[in-house]
């Protein structure tokens, strides 16, 4: 009886370690993914700022086109930022699906800026 109790405790301890280590690894991966998305978003912020400057300096039809492009980019940037926030707050076991959404939002932002 005592041997069975000790064995059960040992198995429970191993399982607890395995699950705990896995969640820690998932959390680390999620945090790394969020940092990568943030880095890309920071790059896009620079391009959006450049686009805004060009729009402010432009005149006529070119100004209208650049302002429209800047406004679209700003909207896409907000969507990407929201996805980044969701990724950073995602549960350790659910972050991969949220990362796909964040990557998609970043792709849309890149397309809007680079049109």
For this entry, what is the oligomeric state of its chains?
single chain
- Give the total of beta strands: 0
Query: What share of the residues does DSSP label as strand, in percent?
Result: under 5%
Query: How far apart, in Å, are the first and last alpha carbons?
Result: 73 Å
Apparent shape: elongated
Q: Domains counted in the coordinates: how many?
A: 1
Could you report the average pLDDT, rounded to the nearest whole number? 85
Question: What is the radius of gyration?
Answer: 23 Å
SS element count, helices: 3
What string, H for helix and E for strand, traces the elements in order?
Answer: HHH
Summarize the structure.
The chain has helices at 2-57, 60-89, 95-114. Helix 1 (2-57) runs antiparallel to helix 2 (60-89), helix 1 runs parallel beside helix 3 and helix 2 packs antiparallel against helix 3.
List keywords for this structure.
elongated; 115 residues; mainly alpha
Descriptive account of the structure:
The protein is elongated. The protein is built from 3 helices and no strands. Residues 14-21 have low confidence and may be disordered. 22% of the residues are buried. It has one domain (30-114). 92% of the residues lie in helices and 0% in strands. The chain is an all-alpha fold. Helix 1 (2-57) runs antiparallel to helix 2, helix 1 (2-57) runs parallel beside helix 3 (95-114) and helix 2 (60-89) runs antiparallel to helix 3.
């Amino acid at each position: 009886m005592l041997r069975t109790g000790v064995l059960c405790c040992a198995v429970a301890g191993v399982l607890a370690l395995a699950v705990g280590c896995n969640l820690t690894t998932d959390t680390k991966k999620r945090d790394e993914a969020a940092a990568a998305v943030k880095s890309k978003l920071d790059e896009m912020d620079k391009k959006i700022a450049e686009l805004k400057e060009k729009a402010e300096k432009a005149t006529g039809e070119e100004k209208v086109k650049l302002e429209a492009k800047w406004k679209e980019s700003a909207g896409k940037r907000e969507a990407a930022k929201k996805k980044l926030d969701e990724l950073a707050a995602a549960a350790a076991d659910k972050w991969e699906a949220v990362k796909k959404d964040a990557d998609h939002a970043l792709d849309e932002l890149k397309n809007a800026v680079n049109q």
